Amino acid sequence: MAWRRLDGETGTCGIGRHAVVSSAFPHLGEEDCLRGRRGSGTVFFSLCNLRCVFCQNADISWLHSGEECDADVLAAIFLSLQDGGCHNLNLVTPSHVVPQLIEALEAAAERGLRLPIVYNTSGYDAVETLRLLDGIVDVYMPDFKFWRPETAERYARAPDYPARAREAIREMHRQVGPLRLGRDGLARRGVLVRHLVMPSHGDESAAIFEWLAREVSPDTYVNVMGQYHPSWQVGEPDGLGRPRFPEIGRLPRVEEMTAAYEAARRSGLWRFDKRQPSWLRPES
After folding, report:
1. CB-based contact 142:168 (threshold 8 Å)
2. What digits encode the pLDDT tens for the residues 228-255?
3. N or C: which terminus of the chain carries fewer CB neighbours within 10 A?
Protein backbone atom coordinates (compact mmCIF):
# COMPACT_ATOMS: atom_id res chain seq x y z
CA MET A 1 0.00 0.00 0.00
CA ALA A 2 1.30 3.47 -0.91
CA TRP A 3 1.00 6.06 1.84
CA ARG A 4 0.37 9.72 0.94
CA ARG A 5 2.76 11.23 3.46
CA LEU A 6 2.62 14.70 1.91
CA ASP A 7 -1.05 14.68 2.86
CA GLY A 8 -0.28 13.54 6.40
CA GLU A 9 -1.14 9.85 6.01
CA THR A 10 0.98 7.53 8.15
CA GLY A 11 2.32 4.02 7.61
CA THR A 12 3.70 1.41 10.00
CA CYS A 13 6.21 3.87 11.41
CA GLY A 14 3.53 6.42 12.26
CA ILE A 15 5.22 9.36 10.50
CA GLY A 16 3.42 11.66 8.09
CA ARG A 17 4.71 14.83 6.42
CA HIS A 18 7.17 15.89 9.11
CA ALA A 19 9.83 14.08 11.11
CA VAL A 20 9.37 13.91 14.88
CA VAL A 21 12.45 14.71 16.98
CA SER A 22 12.65 13.28 20.48
CA SER A 23 15.95 14.90 21.49
CA ALA A 24 19.15 16.41 20.14
CA PHE A 25 22.38 16.77 22.10
CA PRO A 26 26.17 16.10 22.10
CA HIS A 27 26.36 12.36 22.88
CA LEU A 28 29.43 11.21 24.81
CA GLY A 29 28.37 7.56 24.94
CA GLU A 30 28.88 6.63 21.29
CA GLU A 31 31.87 4.81 19.82
CA ASP A 32 35.22 6.49 20.48
CA CYS A 33 35.65 7.34 16.81
CA LEU A 34 32.37 9.28 16.89
CA ARG A 35 32.22 10.93 20.30
CA GLY A 36 35.78 12.29 20.47
CA ARG A 37 36.11 14.93 23.18
CA ARG A 38 33.15 17.13 22.31
CA GLY A 39 30.53 14.51 21.54
CA SER A 40 28.62 13.19 18.57
CA GLY A 41 25.78 15.51 17.60
CA THR A 42 22.91 13.06 17.92
CA VAL A 43 19.39 13.73 16.73
CA PHE A 44 16.96 11.05 17.93
CA PHE A 45 13.98 10.61 15.61
CA SER A 46 10.82 9.21 17.13
CA LEU A 47 9.03 6.10 15.89
CA CYS A 48 10.55 3.31 13.81
CA ASN A 49 9.95 0.87 10.96
CA LEU A 50 10.66 -2.13 13.24
CA ARG A 51 8.77 -3.45 16.27
CA CYS A 52 11.52 -4.93 18.43
CA VAL A 53 10.03 -6.50 21.55
CA PHE A 54 13.24 -5.79 23.51
CA CYS A 55 13.56 -2.15 22.42
CA GLN A 56 15.62 -0.21 24.94
CA ASN A 57 14.28 3.11 23.62
CA ALA A 58 10.62 2.14 23.37
CA ASP A 59 9.48 5.55 24.58
CA ILE A 60 11.09 6.95 21.43
CA SER A 61 10.71 4.16 18.88
CA TRP A 62 7.22 2.90 19.75
CA LEU A 63 5.53 5.98 21.17
CA HIS A 64 4.89 9.32 19.51
CA SER A 65 7.12 11.31 21.86
CA GLY A 66 8.76 14.47 20.63
CA GLU A 67 8.01 17.43 18.42
CA GLU A 68 7.20 17.55 14.72
CA CYS A 69 9.85 19.54 12.86
CA ASP A 70 9.76 20.94 9.35
CA ALA A 71 12.91 21.31 7.25
CA ASP A 72 13.83 24.74 8.59
CA VAL A 73 13.53 23.64 12.22
CA LEU A 74 15.55 20.48 11.55
CA ALA A 75 18.23 22.52 9.79
CA ALA A 76 18.43 24.83 12.79
CA ILE A 77 18.89 21.81 15.10
CA PHE A 78 21.69 20.47 12.92
CA LEU A 79 23.47 23.82 12.87
CA SER A 80 23.13 24.27 16.63
CA LEU A 81 24.97 20.98 17.18
CA GLN A 82 27.71 22.13 14.84
CA ASP A 83 27.93 25.46 16.65
CA GLY A 84 28.22 23.53 19.92
CA GLY A 85 31.43 21.88 18.72
CA CYS A 86 30.14 18.37 17.93
CA HIS A 87 32.40 16.28 15.73
CA ASN A 88 29.63 14.96 13.47
CA LEU A 89 25.88 14.96 12.90
CA ASN A 90 24.51 11.60 14.09
CA LEU A 91 21.01 10.85 12.74
CA VAL A 92 19.50 8.14 14.95
CA THR A 93 16.70 5.90 13.60
CA PRO A 94 16.44 7.82 10.32
CA SER A 95 15.20 5.14 7.90
CA HIS A 96 11.55 6.21 7.93
CA VAL A 97 12.25 9.95 7.50
CA VAL A 98 14.84 10.03 4.71
CA PRO A 99 12.93 12.46 2.42
CA GLN A 100 12.50 14.87 5.33
CA LEU A 101 16.20 14.54 6.18
CA ILE A 102 17.36 15.26 2.63
CA GLU A 103 15.18 18.36 2.59
CA ALA A 104 16.59 19.56 5.93
CA LEU A 105 20.21 18.71 5.12
CA GLU A 106 20.00 20.75 1.91
CA ALA A 107 18.66 23.71 3.88
CA ALA A 108 21.37 23.32 6.51
CA ALA A 109 24.14 23.00 3.91
CA GLU A 110 23.04 26.27 2.35
CA ARG A 111 23.44 27.83 5.81
CA GLY A 112 26.91 26.43 6.47
CA LEU A 113 26.57 22.84 7.69
CA ARG A 114 29.89 21.08 7.17
CA LEU A 115 29.91 18.21 9.70
CA PRO A 116 30.30 14.58 8.58
CA ILE A 117 26.85 12.97 8.37
CA VAL A 118 26.34 9.71 10.31
CA TYR A 119 23.38 7.52 9.34
CA ASN A 120 22.67 5.53 12.53
CA THR A 121 20.17 2.86 11.53
CA SER A 122 18.65 -0.49 12.49
CA GLY A 123 19.77 -1.87 9.13
CA TYR A 124 16.17 -2.27 7.94
CA ASP A 125 16.68 0.00 4.94
CA ALA A 126 15.60 -0.26 1.33
CA VAL A 127 18.42 -0.07 -1.21
CA GLU A 128 16.35 2.38 -3.26
CA THR A 129 16.25 4.72 -0.26
CA LEU A 130 19.97 4.39 0.42
CA ARG A 131 20.76 5.33 -3.17
CA LEU A 132 19.07 8.68 -2.52
CA LEU A 133 21.71 9.25 0.17
CA ASP A 134 24.72 8.46 -2.04
CA GLY A 135 27.02 11.46 -1.76
CA ILE A 136 25.18 12.83 1.29
CA VAL A 137 26.03 10.36 4.06
CA ASP A 138 29.66 10.10 5.13
CA VAL A 139 29.43 7.34 7.75
CA TYR A 140 26.85 4.57 7.70
CA MET A 141 26.33 2.91 11.09
CA PRO A 142 23.86 0.04 10.68
CA ASP A 143 22.88 -2.58 13.20
CA PHE A 144 22.83 -6.17 12.03
CA LYS A 145 20.47 -7.70 14.56
CA PHE A 146 19.32 -11.14 13.39
CA TRP A 147 20.51 -13.76 10.95
CA ARG A 148 17.44 -15.99 10.67
CA PRO A 149 14.07 -14.81 9.29
CA GLU A 150 12.18 -16.63 12.04
CA THR A 151 14.19 -14.81 14.70
CA ALA A 152 13.48 -11.46 13.07
CA GLU A 153 9.79 -12.33 12.86
CA ARG A 154 9.61 -13.34 16.52
CA TYR A 155 11.46 -10.33 17.91
CA ALA A 156 10.83 -7.55 15.37
CA ARG A 157 7.81 -8.60 13.25
CA ALA A 158 10.02 -8.41 10.17
CA PRO A 159 10.94 -11.81 8.69
CA ASP A 160 12.62 -10.07 5.76
CA TYR A 161 14.98 -8.16 8.07
CA PRO A 162 18.07 -10.38 7.50
CA ALA A 163 17.79 -10.14 3.72
CA ARG A 164 17.12 -6.40 3.82
CA ALA A 165 20.04 -5.80 6.20
CA ARG A 166 22.43 -7.73 3.95
CA GLU A 167 21.31 -5.79 0.89
CA ALA A 168 21.54 -2.50 2.77
CA ILE A 169 25.03 -3.10 4.17
CA ARG A 170 26.31 -4.09 0.74
CA GLU A 171 24.94 -0.85 -0.69
CA MET A 172 26.38 1.21 2.15
CA HIS A 173 29.79 -0.36 1.59
CA ARG A 174 29.55 0.28 -2.15
CA GLN A 175 29.01 3.95 -1.44
CA VAL A 176 31.60 4.66 1.25
CA GLY A 177 33.76 1.55 1.77
CA PRO A 178 35.42 0.48 5.04
CA LEU A 179 35.57 3.01 7.86
CA ARG A 180 38.38 5.53 7.57
CA LEU A 181 39.63 7.58 10.50
CA GLY A 182 41.43 10.90 10.58
CA ARG A 183 44.67 11.53 12.41
CA ASP A 184 42.60 12.52 15.42
CA GLY A 185 41.01 9.05 15.48
CA LEU A 186 37.60 10.35 14.44
CA ALA A 187 35.49 8.73 11.74
CA ARG A 188 35.58 10.49 8.41
CA ARG A 189 33.92 8.12 5.95
CA GLY A 190 32.87 4.47 5.70
CA VAL A 191 30.76 1.78 7.34
CA LEU A 192 30.67 0.91 11.05
CA VAL A 193 28.50 -2.12 11.89
CA ARG A 194 26.95 -2.65 15.31
CA HIS A 195 25.82 -6.06 16.53
CA LEU A 196 23.92 -6.49 19.79
CA VAL A 197 24.72 -9.88 21.28
CA MET A 198 21.48 -11.59 22.34
CA PRO A 199 21.32 -14.30 24.99
CA SER A 200 20.92 -17.81 23.55
CA HIS A 201 21.66 -16.64 19.98
CA GLY A 202 25.42 -17.01 19.66
CA ASP A 203 25.10 -18.98 16.43
CA GLU A 204 23.42 -16.00 14.78
CA SER A 205 26.20 -13.68 15.94
CA ALA A 206 28.78 -16.01 14.42
CA ALA A 207 26.87 -16.19 11.12
CA ILE A 208 26.65 -12.41 10.92
CA PHE A 209 30.37 -11.96 11.54
CA GLU A 210 31.23 -14.64 8.98
CA TRP A 211 29.06 -12.93 6.38
CA LEU A 212 30.56 -9.50 7.05
CA ALA A 213 34.11 -10.78 6.68
CA ARG A 214 33.39 -12.89 3.60
CA GLU A 215 30.82 -10.85 1.68
CA VAL A 216 31.56 -7.25 2.69
CA SER A 217 35.17 -6.91 3.89
CA PRO A 218 37.41 -8.30 6.64
CA ASP A 219 38.29 -4.64 7.22
CA THR A 220 34.74 -3.89 8.36
CA TYR A 221 34.78 -1.92 11.62
CA VAL A 222 32.50 -3.68 14.12
CA ASN A 223 31.13 -2.87 17.55
CA VAL A 224 30.29 -6.13 19.36
CA MET A 225 27.76 -4.77 21.82
CA GLY A 226 27.08 -6.30 25.21
CA GLN A 227 24.46 -3.96 26.66
CA TYR A 228 21.41 -6.10 25.93
CA HIS A 229 18.99 -6.30 28.83
CA PRO A 230 15.41 -7.57 28.90
CA SER A 231 13.11 -4.60 28.51
CA TRP A 232 9.87 -3.37 26.94
CA GLN A 233 7.74 -6.46 26.14
CA VAL A 234 10.22 -9.21 26.97
CA GLY A 235 8.87 -9.83 30.46
CA GLU A 236 5.19 -9.60 29.59
CA PRO A 237 3.13 -12.77 30.20
CA ASP A 238 1.41 -14.75 27.49
CA GLY A 239 -2.18 -15.97 27.72
CA LEU A 240 -1.16 -18.63 30.26
CA GLY A 241 0.76 -16.25 32.47
CA ARG A 242 4.18 -17.42 31.29
CA PRO A 243 6.91 -15.07 30.00
CA ARG A 244 6.44 -14.49 26.29
CA PHE A 245 10.17 -14.50 25.49
CA PRO A 246 11.91 -16.55 28.20
CA GLU A 247 14.96 -17.28 26.04
CA ILE A 248 15.95 -13.60 26.02
CA GLY A 249 14.74 -12.78 29.51
CA ARG A 250 18.23 -12.31 30.94
CA LEU A 251 21.53 -10.53 30.34
CA PRO A 252 24.12 -12.13 28.04
CA ARG A 253 26.55 -14.22 30.05
CA VAL A 254 30.27 -13.48 30.07
CA GLU A 255 30.93 -16.69 28.18
CA GLU A 256 28.40 -15.68 25.50
CA MET A 257 30.11 -12.33 25.01
CA THR A 258 33.51 -14.01 24.91
CA ALA A 259 32.28 -16.53 22.35
CA ALA A 260 30.79 -13.77 20.18
CA TYR A 261 34.02 -11.83 20.15
CA GLU A 262 36.05 -14.95 19.42
CA ALA A 263 33.69 -15.78 16.54
CA ALA A 264 34.23 -12.32 15.12
CA ARG A 265 38.00 -12.70 15.25
CA ARG A 266 37.83 -16.23 13.85
CA SER A 267 35.85 -14.95 10.85
CA GLY A 268 38.72 -12.65 9.93
CA LEU A 269 37.35 -9.39 11.32
CA TRP A 270 39.93 -7.39 13.22
CA ARG A 271 38.71 -3.80 13.60
CA PHE A 272 36.68 -3.46 16.80
CA ASP A 273 35.45 -0.64 19.00
CA LYS A 274 38.23 0.11 21.49
CA ARG A 275 35.90 0.33 24.47
CA GLN A 276 35.53 -3.45 24.66
CA PRO A 277 36.16 -4.83 28.16
CA SER A 278 39.69 -6.14 28.67
CA TRP A 279 38.57 -9.77 28.48
CA LEU A 280 37.16 -9.11 25.00
CA ARG A 281 40.09 -7.30 23.46
CA PRO A 282 42.25 -9.03 20.85
CA GLU A 283 45.72 -10.05 21.85
CA SER A 284 48.41 -7.51 21.10
Report:
1. yes
2. 999 999 988 888 888 999 999 999 999 9
3. C
